Amino acid sequence: MIESIGRVRARNSVHGGHWFDHSTMHFFKSRVSETAYLSADDKQSFFVSSERYSQDYAPRRYTVRVQDCETGSIDTVGNFQGYATGYNAHKVAKALSEGKTPEDVYITLNGKVIV
């Protein structure tokens, strides 16, 4: 199920998290997609962030994140900046929300995501 990133932000804030604080986002040059994917049991929400590592000319890369809906805590799924495109990261986040495991998701050499 799709939910807004606003709900993810609110859960993090209510539980004292600082993941979405302006200063944190600015420091890591982070952005987040407006779409999050809620698991069928409503226990986890998966979303995509993007970061630009250090130099301004470095390419923006994408990371799949998971939030524990009970505690509001956020973790990285897989590798930090593990995706070259937001499209691939979203496909993975959606598949994870549908109960697939990271091992169920494959990325071919040409970057295509297979679920």
Mean pLDDT: 88
Number of continuous helical runs: 3
Given the C-alpha coordinates, what overall shape results?
flat
SS-derived structural category: alpha+beta
Largest sheet report = 5 strands, antiparallel
Number of domains: 1
- Walk across the major sheet and give the strand order: 1-2-3-4-5
Q: Which key phrases capture this entry?
A:
single chain, alpha+beta, two-stranded antiparallel ribbon, 3 helices, 7 strands, 24% helix, 33% strand
Provide an overview of this structure:
Helices cover 24% and strands 33% of the residues. By secondary structure, the protein is α+β, with helices and mostly antiparallel strands. The protein has one domain. It has a five-stranded antiparallel beta sheet with strand order 1-2-3-4-5. A two-stranded antiparallel sheet has the order 6-7. A hairpin with a 7-residue loop joins strand 3 and strand 4. The longest helix is centred in the C-terminal third of the chain and has 12 residues, at 86-97. The chain is flat and about 40 Å long. The mean pLDDT is 88.
Describe the structure in brief:
By secondary structure, the chain is an alpha+beta fold.
Strand and helix layout:
Layout (H helix, E strand, L loop, with lengths): L1 E3 H10 L7 H6 L2 E9 L5 E9 L7 E9 L5 E4 L8 H12 L8 E2 L5 E2 L1
Antiparallel strand pairs: 1-2, 2-3, 3-4, 4-5, 6-7
